[in-house]
Amino acid sequence: MTRYKVATTDEFDGDGARVLVEIDGLEIAVFRVDGEYHALANYCVHQGGPLCEGKLTGKMSVGDDGVGWEYEADERYVVCPWHEWKFDVTTGRNVSDERYVTPTFDVTVEGEDVYVVR
Ligand code: FES
């Protein structure tokens, strides 16, 4: 495993910001969500779309009563621009079917430097 410096923290304009980089021919996006950094491949496991170029959003889910809907406003879900499959940026998992997982990578921050481990 190698650690790659990909950005500095000032390149992220708050939560919801992202930086796209290329490491060894693979495009990777680093997202800032709730002050934490998460990296995932810019590759949608559905049909290879540029997943990380999609918008960030919250998530609708069935409420605790099993009838009503609840909106999780925490914007940590990226929507693929090709067919709108939605993935949790923090885990890489598809929100509708967790068998579909986009590769994720560890991120470390030292001082102002952001590193991706690959
Ligand atoms: S390629 Fe991403 S949803 Fe189809």
Describe the structure.
The protein has one domain: Rieske [2Fe-2S] iron-sulphur domain (Rieske Iron-sulfur Protein, 3-layer Sandwich). The termini are close together. The chain contains no helices and nine strands. The strands form two sheets. The chain has a six-stranded antiparallel beta sheet, with no helix packed on it. The relative contact order is 0.26. With 118 residues, the chain is mostly beta strands. Bound molecules: FE2/S2 (inorganic) cluster. The site of FE2/S2 (inorganic) cluster has 10 residues, from loops.
Question: Can you give me a brief rundown of this structure?
Answer:
It contains no helices and 9 strands. The protein is mainly beta. The chain has a single domain, classed as Rieske Iron-sulfur Protein (3-layer Sandwich).
Principal-axes geometry comes out as globular
- Estimated helix fraction: under 10%
Q: Estimate nothing, just give the exact number of structural domains.
A: 1
Number of helices: 0
- Which strands sit side by side, in order, in the main sheet? 1-9-8-4-3-2
Low-confidence stretches: none
Look at the structure and give the CATH class: Mainly Beta
Largest sheet features: 6 strands, antiparallel
The chain-level mean pLDDT equals: 95
How much of the residues is beta strand, in percent? over 45%
Considering the protein shown, what is the CATH homologous superfamily? Rieske [2Fe-2S] iron-sulphur domain
Measured distance between first and last alpha carbons = 5 Å
| Heteromolecules bound | FE2/S2 (inorganic) cluster
CATH architecture type: 3-layer Sandwich
Multimeric state: single chain
CATH fold call: Rieske Iron-sulfur Protein
Beta strand count: 9
